[in-house]
Amino acid sequence: MDKSEFEELVSSLTPYESAGTVNTYRNTVSIACPACEEPFDDLVVCEGEYDSLELSRVLDLCVTTSDENVLLFTHQ
Q1: What is the structure's pLDDT at 12?
Q2: Angle 54-35-17 (CA atoms, 0-180°, nearest 5)?
Q3: pTM for the whole thing?
Q4: Which of 11, 34, 39, 41 has the fewest CB atoms below 10 angstroms from its CB?
Q5: What's the structural domain count of the chain?
Q6: Contact, 73 vs 35, CB < 8 A?
Q7: What is the mean pLDDT of the chain?
Q8: Strand, coil or helix: 62
Q9: pLDDT at 33 over 90
């Protein structure tokens, strides 16, 4: 995903949570996941060289990158 596609995507989402170099956005408008083309629940952006996630529920994940960031699209 190039930078302009990433910026357009994030501008359509609702900021939800930020912790260090990990930012989470809610998909409140049912945008399709770029990997599987199904609506996703949240976008988790990992900007650090090493990031850790503590998941409180089982999720299906689709993954891509934008620049040096890892993008995780969650599906419940």
Answers
A1: 97
A2: 35
A3: 0.90
A4: 11
A5: 1
A6: yes
A7: 93
A8: strand
A9: yes
Instruction: Report yes or no: 40 and 73 within 8 Å, Cβ to Cβ.
Output: yes
Whole-number pLDDT of residue 73:
95
Closest by Cα among 46, 39, 47 to 74: 39
In order of 28, 51, 61, 73, the CA distances from 39 in angstroms are 10, 25, 12, 9
Phi/psi zone of residue 30: left (φ > 0), alpha (ψ -120 to 50 degrees), beta? left
* Domain extent at residue 54: 3-75
Amino acid code (one letter) for 3: K
- Are 55 and 61 within 8 A, CB to CB? no
Instruction: Write phi, then psi, for 9 (nearest 5 degrees).
Output: -60, -50
Q: Identify which of 38, 44, 34 has the alpha carbon closest to the alpha carbon of residue 71.
A: 44
Q: How many CB atoms lie within 10 A of CB 42?
A: 18
Least Cα distance to 40 among 56, 29, 52, 51 occurs for 29
